[in-house]
Design a protein that fits this description.
It is a single chain. This protein is of the alpha+beta class and about 325 residues long. The protein has two domains: about 140 residues, Beta-Lactamase, CATH 3.30.450.20; about 160 residues, Reverse transcriptase/Diguanylate cyclase domain (Alpha-Beta Plaits), CATH 3.30.70.270. Helices cover about 45% and strands about 20% of the residues. Helix 9 packs across helix 10. The longest helix has 22 residues. The chain is elongated and about 95 Å long.
Length: about 325
Amino acid sequence: MSHDLDITEFHWLMDMLQTIDVGLVVLDRRYKIKAWNSFMENHSGLRPDKVRDKMIFDVFDEIPKEWFLHKTRPVFLLKNRSFTTWEQRPYLFKFKNYRPITGTEKFMYQNITISPLMSTTGEVQNICVIVYDVTDIASNRKQLETANAKLQMLSRTDGLTGLNNRRFWQEQFEAEYRRYKRTGEASSLVMFDIDHFKKVNDNYGHPAGDDVIRATADMLKETMRITDVAGRYGGEEFAVILVKTESDSATIFAERLRENIANLLVTHEDHEIRYTISLGIAELNPGIKSAAEWMEKADSALYRSKEGGRNRVTVAS
């Protein structure tokens, strides 16, 4: 009677292993497949008799052999479990994803548990690899991270120009001043605005003014270096931090930008609009005691460009 009960319990166990919604693979010390449940069959398309006694690396060449040996050898030797998550490695078995909710994901994301299987003598001759389908979790996490990244980008970006908005640019500006105080490496600030911008709005309308602002920002992006930090400081006013740049080099940049804008033609509906910009430059030096003072010097240089006739560059003395 006891023998019949053992046989019944064994069948129950095998039936459970076949129907659970996780993958189950048993490997021997030579990494030959000894057991293969229905989950693995359904997702791989391979029946147990087609994979039994074959090396797992021969059946699934996407499994990185050295990495897998590194994960599993301690399981054999130390009789401890080993784990890997989808964040560390998206999948062990390259199964296609068929879940309707996360159908945008190409492959099944997997968490893996590798457990020792003790023999009656206490030795580990086989290990069990359990595969958990965590595609829904991984997809939701990725979507949340993408959404958060977009929100972060939106929170620091000017909607009209795509440049840094004033708040975020101000943070970068103050951080650059602190960097200068630590290192003593020169940096220059360029402030500029669009000449007679009110006339553009009055003559052609605010949508035309928006086109001019966008065109100015686009030309600024083309002219500046990737290391420079540009922002829309206010209506038609812009600011650029030229990192590790002295005033002579900053003047070359400013003149190039001024000429590029002067040669720019903005078309709005049937109107062709030409315009210019005025610029002021201030290089950091030991006499500048705060970020606000640095800003004031660049702003004063911009004001002198305006007073001097516009469409010109002035460097703060």
